[in-house]
Amino acid sequence: MPDAAFCLHPNALAPAPITASVMPTDPHEIKKREASARATIKRAFGTAEDESGVALFISHHLEELDSAYWKKHFSTETPDPVRILDSLVLRSHWGGDNEIDIFDFTLPEDVTNYVISVSFDEAGEVSGIAMES
């Protein structure tokens, strides 16, 4: 008698394939969270509570990047930090089922491995901000 584990009757039902039930990411929600993240980054900069590293991100890059980079992007070798914050680009968003739990921002042209990372809770509210590499 054949081994039952390997014997399938032609009329037997095959198990359903395993599929992920990930909902597509809503572009409106991405834009909403990006705007919220950008506003949070600006609010954190220069405050006494700025433990997030936004000021460190700015000061580090002002010191480390060549003046030609700043001149190219801001027409000055020492741009105002708020202008730098305005220029941040969204490098990626990731995490959670919809890939929108964490938004990473960095300087234009990928000149650094550092990002300002903004995380969101389940309700879509900002829950944290940090400088990461």
Largest sheet: 4 strands, antiparallel
Report the average pLDDT across residues.
83
- Rounded to the nearest angstrom, the radius of gyration is 23 Å
Uncertain stretches of 5 or more adjacent residues: 1-12, 14-23
Order of helices and strands: HHHHEEEE
* Helix content range: 25-40%
% residues in beta strands: 15-25%
**Strand arrangement in the largest pleated sheet:** 1-2-3-4
Identify the overall geometry: globular
Q: How many angstroms separate the termini?
A: 61 Å
> How many H/I helices?
4
Structural class: alpha+beta
Quaternary organisation of the protein chains: single chain
Q: Work out the number of β strands.
A: 4
Written overview of the protein:
This protein has 133 residues and is of the alpha+beta class. It has a domain at 49-133. The chain has helices spanning 27-44, 54-64, 67-74, 81-87; strands at residues 89-94, 102-106, 115-120, 126-132. It has a four-stranded antiparallel beta sheet, with helices on one face. The longest helix has 18 residues, at 27-44. The radius of gyration is 23 Å and the shape is globular.
Task: Please supply descriptive tags for the structure shown above.
four-stranded antiparallel beta sheet, disordered N terminus, 4 strands, alpha+beta, 133 residues
In short:
The protein is of the alpha+beta class.
Topology at a glance:
Layout: H1 27-44, H2 54-64, H3 67-74, H4 81-87, E1 89-94, E2 102-106, E3 115-120, E4 126-132
Antiparallel strand pairs: 1-2, 2-3, 3-4
